[in-house]
Amino acid sequence: MAKPIIVTWGGVQSTFDHEKLDRAKLYGKRQRQILDPHEQRCERAELSRDGTLLIRSGMTAQGYFDEGNAWIPNGKLVGLDADGKPLPHIPSTLGEPQKLEGPVDPGELLDLAVRSVYTLDPNGLDPKLEGELRGGKVFRFVFCYRGGYDTELAYLVCNGGAYFALVGSPAVSDWCELQTTVADDPGGDDDGDELDFEMF
């Protein structure tokens, strides 16, 4: 079982067991299965470019081949910055207390590119925090599930008596405006600007 999500607010610690919420759990799923002549389920696989390796589903998630066709497992990969220098590894936040920020403006959720949603089962919830969440307040904390080279933001919310963590990154939008407003000239003659479709 995965380690719990632990948060602290006002010096008091709260713990949540968590489970990832996906579309299949909300709506169910159907899967088309391909069977061989013996009614056994077929598994997808593909050949490597040079035709020497048969790659089954899930194998490419375990590592990579370098230019010399040597196998490099994910555990040996390192992150690099724009200058090619190694980035510091960030440990998982699961099982480690994370400080809650807030209450924050609920509008922040509208600017969040949500990657994951977790249903939370309180296991030692601070009564004051519970009251704030049930009152519609939103809290924010740093989240990193497996550990890596980047963190995400998680927002702790309560809806209908159930607790959720919405995890993602802020979506930054660049807004553009006209520097000047073009006004119509009511006294001008627009007849010369009309298109003559016969000229096409």
Walk me through the structure:
The protein has helices at residues 23-27, 127-134, and strands at 5-9, 12-21, 45-47, 54-56, 63-65, 71-73, 98-99, 101-104, 112-122, 138-143, 152-159, 162-170. The chain is mainly β and 200 residues long. Strands 7-1-2-9-12-11-10-8 form an eight-stranded mixed sheet. A two-stranded antiparallel ribbon has the order 3-4. The longest helix has 8 residues, at 127-134. It is extended.
Concise account of the structure shown:
This protein is mainly beta and about 200 residues long. It has helices at about 25, 125-135; strands spanning about 5-10, 10-20, 45, 55, 65, 70-75, 100, 100-105, 110-120, 140-145, 150-160, 160-170. Strand 11 (about 150-160) and strand 12 (about 160-170) form a beta hairpin.
Salient structural properties:
single chain; 200 residues; mainly beta; eight-stranded mixed beta sheet; two-stranded antiparallel sheet; 12 strands; 6% helix; extended
Walk across the major sheet and give the strand order: 7-1-2-9-12-11-10-8
Poorly predicted residue ranges: none
- Report the sheet with the most strands, covering strand number, pairing sense and barrel closure: 8 strands, mixed
The mean pLDDT is 85
Give the CA-based shape: extended
What is the SS-derived class? mainly beta
H/E series, N to C?
EEHEEEEEEEHEEE
